[in-house]
Amino acid sequence: MYEGPVQDLIDELGRLPGVGPKSAQRIAFHLLSAEPADIERLQQALQKVKEGVVFCDVCGNVSAETTCRICRDPKRDLSLVCVVEEPKDVQAIERTREFKGRYHVLGGALDPLSGIGPDQLRIRQLLNRIGTTTDGVDISEVIIATDPNTEGEATATYLVRMLRDFPGLTVTRLASGLPMGGDLEFADELTLGRALSGRRSM
Predict the structure, then answer these.
(1) Does 25 have pLDDT greater than 70?
(2) Domains of the chain, first to last
(3) What pLDDT is stored for residue 199 in this prediction?
(4) Per-residue DSSP letters for 8-30?
(5) Contact 107, 86 (CB under 8 A)
(6) Closest CA to 103 of 85, 124, 117, 128
(7) I need a labelling partner for 2 at 20 to 30 A (CA). Which of 17, 74, 131, 144 fits?
(8) What is the per-residue pLDDT across 134-174, written as a single tens digit (0 to 9) for each?
(9) What residues have CB less than 8 Å from 140, skipping those under 6 apart?
(10) What is the residue-wise DSSP string for 128-187?
(11) 71-80, 138-147, 153-162, 176-185: which range is least confident on average?
(12) pLDDT of 135
């Protein structure tokens, strides 16, 4: 639609997740009218993301150092590990302020159609962590917090199969059910069924 660099920028922005053609066009024209200093700050931030961000040696979360702040925190419960797909999932769980253990970031979910198998994820590192005592503490519970979709369920099932032979290890899965403020009539059968099977006494 547009010529030269403007269209190239729109095309590149449109490849970002969650950015449609109209949003890409809006962002491109906003950048065109932005001050040079603002553009330079954006360029530097993008450059630093590729050069300055490392992944935690312990859990695989994004970090500024070789060990992330959560894994360095001495107040964390070393016996609890919550397994998530991506670093953004760590932040989602942290916002609840309910979990006091550590994390393990897989780096995605099993998706054979896209060529993502167990070897492309950090599953081997998880098994090594569970088999290792840290500061005299063994991991006693692994909470599987993968997404409640086809890939997430396949990953959870695979992990349960891999972890069930560890003696004394409890493997749990995040409960799924009805959202707060939702109406029963609008819930799909799968969500409602899970809410029923996961009910608890009050």
Answers:
(1) yes
(2) 5-51 (1.10.8.420), 80-173 (3.40.1360.10)
(3) 76
(4) HHHHHHHTSTT--HHHHHHHHHH
(5) yes
(6) 85
(7) 17
(8) 888 899 999 999 998 889 999 999 999 999 889 999 999 98
(9) 79, 80, 168, 169, 170
(10) HHHTS-BTTB---EEEE---SSHHHHHHHHHHHHHHTTSTT-EEEE----PPTT--GGGS
(11) 176-185
(12) 81
- The first and second tokens of residue 29, run together, are 């024209």
Whether the CB-CB separation of 69 and 63 falls below 8 Å is answered with yes
Mean pLDDT value across residues 45-64: 88
Residue 191: phi and psi, rounded to 5, are -65, -45
**Residue 190, SS3 per DSSP:** helix
In a 10 Å sphere around its CB, with 0-12 CB exposed, 13-18 middle and 19+ buried, how is residue 68 labelled?
A: buried
Write down the pLDDT at residue 10: 92
C-beta separation of 173 from 179 below 8 A: no
Q: How far apart are CA 20 and CA 24, in angstroms?
A: 6
